[in-house]
């Protein structure tokens, strides 16, 4: 459910706009409406996970989510006549990406929400940019620490301790489940860095790579789920609807919305969705599920978001430079564009995370 490292959007026009391939582009709703819809979908995803676990085992929730999400993207790929990647090496990289960006974090969040509130899971998800900055300093040579980013990391850490009530000795918390939620948030930047190193410049479109990745993740859960759970003997209505909505909306439609935003307004603006997700997740958990909310939860969440914003400050500048390079590139289709290739990879982090 982690948001992209740098999403974007599409400028509304009165008439169809020709794409680079010469085909007309249909008018889309104003990007602000789609941005709001994406924030709501991902914010409510934690509530849907919680409801889904009331009727199904965590692996079943994840499998149902991936299956319905893959179905949505398969339809989108068929409509747009997208081709699947042909390289065996690409599929191998997609297998690893699917594990770190989909199968692992989705399953961890589902297991975590067996015992922790959806509000806490949503706030843990907001730590993903903090993990991402820490890992990128080690794994990506172009990322260098700055005082602002280091301060953001420290501020985010203080925010996490505030959310968890460290001064109370973490009383009342399921530490194992909370650790699972934090590990799920860590999994997203691990996958993002891997994708950035291996899948840039493959020539396949973002939609084709994303759909293929979700398909692989569905296969992974399809093999794992029967080993740990038995087939359900009944299908309770509300949990079933929650799982279907989680996949079709929170994984399938959300990816398409994100894809359109990144193509239109660039990763910098789309990245801002990260800061709305925990707010919406908290409001949904309290209003719909009646979850208890102590003062330290929203206060700590705000500190976490402030720290995350500071850690991303340099990345936004880089994203803007990438878009300028892409705008000057003469290559049609963008498969070999340095700028577009980077946007594609950054978006993949959110697919994983499409929470």
In DSSP terms, counting alpha (H) and pi (I) runs of 4 or more, how many helices? 14
Low-confidence stretches: 2-23, 315-354
- Average pLDDT taken over every residue: 80
Main pleated-sheet profile: 2 strands, antiparallel
- Rg estimate, integer Å: 19 Å
What proportion of the residues is helical, as a percent range? over 70%
Number of E-state strands: 2
The secondary-structure class comes to mainly alpha
Strand content: under 5%
Q: Could you say which overall geometry the principal axes of the C-alpha atoms support? A: globular
Major sheet: arrangement of strands: 1-2
Overview of the molecule:
The chain is an all-alpha fold and 355 residues long. Strand 1 and strand 2 form a beta hairpin. The chain has 14 helices and two strands; from the N terminus they run ββαααααααααααααα.
Give a quick summary of the entry.
Helices cover 70% and strands 1% of the residues.
Q: What's the helix and strand layout?
A:
Elements: E1 17-18, E2 24-25, H1 31-52, H2 58-80, H3 88-112, H4 118-125, H5 128-139, H6 147-164, H7 175-198, H8 206-228, H9 237-265, H10 267-271, H11 277-289, H12 296-311, H13 313-328, H14 338-353
Antiparallel strand pairs: 1-2
